[in-house]
Every structure is written in C-alpha cells, then in structure tokens.
Amino acid sequence: MANSRFEYVRTFERENILLPQTHIVIRVDGRGFHKFSDFYEFEKPNDEIALNVMNESAKQLMKTIPDIIMAYGDSDEYSFLLRKDCQLFDRREFKLITTFSSSFSANYQYYWNKLNSSKPLNIERLPTFDARAIVYPNDLNVIDYFKWRQVDCHINNLYNTTFWNLVIKGNMTTKEAENKLIGTLSSDKNEILFKEFGINYNDLPEMYKKGTIFLREYIDFPISKYKEQPTNECLIRLIKRSKKTEIKQYHCDLIKDSFWSDRPYLLQ
Ligand code: DGT
Ligand code: MG
Ligand code: MG
Ligand code: MG
Ligand code: MG
C-alpha cells in the first residue's frame, strides 16, 4: 500500500495476541435466541431442525478451519477447541472472533434456508452470533470447560423438558409451572416426568440430553496399542504418522475420563 500522510491513523489500531502455547476455545452464541425461537415458533423444549441447523453450521466451520480439533454445542451455542499450536491469524483475537461469529452466522442462514425452508427468514429477525475467545493454560481446564458446558446442557434440558410438559400436557400456566419447579432437585423433576407424564428421562434423544460433539479424529490412530497414555514424544510421532482425519459426530458423555484418555490427540 502506498504511503500517504494519512497513514498515521493506523497507529491507533489495537491488537490482542492470544497467549502462545495455550488452548484456545471460541464460543459462539445466538443473539436474542429467546425471542428468535419464539418468532420462528421453535418446538419446545427442543426443535430438532433448529438444532440440526446449529450442528451443520458448526461442522461446516470445522471443514473450513482445520485448526478446529473439537466442537461442542447445545441450544444456541457452540464451543470450538483449536489446536494448542494453532497459528491461525497469528492468534490475533479480534480477527479470530469476528471470523468465527460472521462465518457461523453465514453458515446458519445457509443451513436454515436448506433445512427449514417452510419458515423463510424475515429481514427484521435474522440470526446472528457473538463470539468470545478464552485461553486455558492446561489440559484440565479445557476438559473442565467442556464438562461445564455438557452439565449445563443437561440441567437446562431436564428443567425445560419438565417445564414444557407441565405447560403443554399438564395445562399449567407458565407461572404455575415455574412455581412448581422452584427448589426442585433433578430427582424431583425425573419423578414429575415419570409419574405425571409417563416419560422416562433416560429414554429421551441423546442429542437433547448430551448436546452434540464433533471431533476431528485420526482414522488410523493406533491408540488401542497403548495400554497407558503414550508419552508426549510418542504422541507427536503418532500424530505426524497418522494423516487421515475425519470429522465425526457424537452425542456421548464427555464427563467420563475415558472420553479424553481414548483421544489424547485432542489436547496435543
Ligand atoms: P443472548 O445470548 O444474551 O443474546 O440472549 P438469548 O436470548 O440468546 O439467551 P441464551 O443464549 O442464554 O438462551 C438461548 C435461548 O434460545 C433460550 O431462551 C432458549 C432458546 N432456544 C435454543 N434452542 C431452542 C430450542 O431448540 N427450542 C426452543 N423452544 N428454544 C430454544
Ligand atoms: Mg447468553
Ligand atoms: Mg443466545
Ligand atoms: Mg445461549
Ligand atoms: Mg482487507
């Protein structure tokens, strides 16, 4: 770019470089989806099509950004884990989060039109997503981060499932249902679902109870050969050797430790 006497204004710009050699998690979240879900008359408590729009949008983002090794989502949010040594945009925070939020929003509109074509988007209420980046210094923090999101999914889903059954099938007003649930434990909600509506919470779809996980897996990764966790050097060698990756979708429990120990490359 040619120099001009105006160029000094560039010195006012700011950058924030995310700490090197730390795990980066970027979470996108739908803006005002409480109203958005009302406006487009989402199924309560879970709208399968809307959740699939979220999932396809996340999967597409993973395809276009190879540094994403894992994604976890439920409701109107998705969290993306980047490789620890990720150098995308030189780890410039603003470039990362604006790219994630705009790409996710664009993907969401595309997949909405594709999967939900009976509900055309209204210019007054387009879906948009914010994004934040969080850096975590060690593996435990990252694991606890994803456990936190999955526990949140479970708590919200159990509450919402019970709440909407009381309203829709139990003919309660939303206020009455809210009052009935104040101070209840998980076991109380399970009992209401079973006794009043014949619903066994455990039988509900895994996607609703556990959210959705996408992993970039090494197809030929010989983890089964290792009785214990391979050493770091060994792991790096294995990762270099196994080149073939595939994005796989799960709705499983990531709170149990075997989820992580079976896939040591997620945190490498
Ligand atoms: P924000 O994120 O601060 O801009 O505000 P909201 O309204 O997006 O709040 P948030 O993200 O805490 O909550 C997500 C909302 O989206 C929540 O009100 C429930 C709604 N929602 C998400 N997925 C579904 C669904 O599958 N069915 C229904 N009925 N509602 C959903
Ligand atoms: Mg929020
Ligand atoms: Mg939201
Ligand atoms: Mg949310
Ligand atoms: Mg430019």
From TrEMBL:
UniProt keyword list: GTP-binding, Magnesium, Metal-binding, Nucleotide-binding, Nucleotidyltransferase, Transferase, tRNA processing
Q: Which Pfam families match?
A: Thg1 (PF04446), Thg1C (PF14413)
Coiled-coil region? none
| Gene Ontology molecular-function annotations | GTP binding; magnesium ion binding; tRNA guanylyltransferase activity
Binding site residues for Mg(2+) 2: D29, D76
Q: Which reaction does it catalyse?
A: a 5'-end ribonucleotide-tRNA(His) + GTP + ATP + H2O = a 5'-end phospho-guanosine-ribonucleotide-tRNA(His) + AMP + 2 diphosphate + H(+)
Q: Tell me which residues make up the tRNAHis guanylyltransferase catalytic domain.
A: 6-137
GO terms, biological process:
tRNA modification
The residues that hold Mg(2+) 1 are D29, G30, D76
Q: What class of enzyme is it?
A: transferase
Q: Does the keyword Nucleotide-binding apply?
A: yes
The UniProt record lists the Thg1 C-terminal domain at 141-256
**Cofactor(s) essential for the protein:** Mg(2+)
Binding-site list for GTP: D29, G30, R31, G32, F33, H34, S75, D76
Query: Does the entry feature the keyword Metal-binding, yes or no?
Result: yes
Query: What does the note accompanying the cofactor annotation read?
Result: Binds 2 magnesium ions per subunit.
InterPro entries noted in UniProt = Thg1_C_dom (IPR025845), tRNAHis_GuaTrfase_cat (IPR024956), tRNAHis_GuaTrfase_Thg1 (IPR007537), tRNAHis_GuaTrfase_Thg1_sf (IPR038469)
Could you say which EC number(s) this protein's record lists? 2.7.7.79
Family membership noted in the UniProt record? Belongs to the tRNA(His) guanylyltransferase family.
The record describes the protein's role as: Adds a GMP to the 5'-end of tRNA(His) after transcription and RNase P cleavage.
Q: What is this protein called?
A: tRNA(His) guanylyltransferase
